[in-house]
Amino acid sequence: MTFMFENLDVYKAAIEFVDRTYTLCDNLKKGYLFKIIDQLQRASLSVSLNIAEGCGRTSRKERKQFYKISRGSLFECIPILTILHRRGTLLKDDFLFMYDLATKIGTMLNGLIRSLDKYDN
To answer: Where do the coiled-coil regions begin and end (predicted)?
Structure first.
């Protein structure tokens, strides 16, 4: 059995994003960074979870709301990645990769949200 969301490119990219985030965080585990790393992990996981949950909703309005929550969680990751990079904890190449991937995911989420907008009128 395949769930509908598993075929979405945005979901696949979100899974890659959270997987890369967890790998980066495994390498960053330092006591004073625990809270910010935990927040980054939770926010990155929320991106894919809300895409999946949105796909499980029957109304377009609910689905759109979950996609917006997913987008908000993605946006939450950017300042955390920026702070880690500025503090020298996250390498420039890793930061740029994650930033670019987040940009692609954001673009795809915006497309999903816009595709549901036409039904609101």
So the answer is: none
> 109's torsion region: left (phi>0), alpha (psi -120 to 50) or beta?
alpha
Query: Which CATH number goes with the domain that contains 94?
Result: 1.20.1440.60
Query: Is 121's pLDDT higher than 60?
Result: no
Q: Which structural domain range is residue 22 located in?
A: 4-117
Q: Label residue 35 exposed, middle or buried (CB < 10 Å: 0-12, 13-18, 19+).
A: exposed
Sequence-distant (6+) residues with CB within 8 A of 69 are 46, 50, 54
Model's pTM, two decimal places?
0.93
Residue among 66, 71, 64, 55 at smallest CA distance from 17: 71
Collect all residues with Cβ–Cβ distance below 8 Å to 43 and sequence separation of at least 6: 73, 74, 76, 77, 80
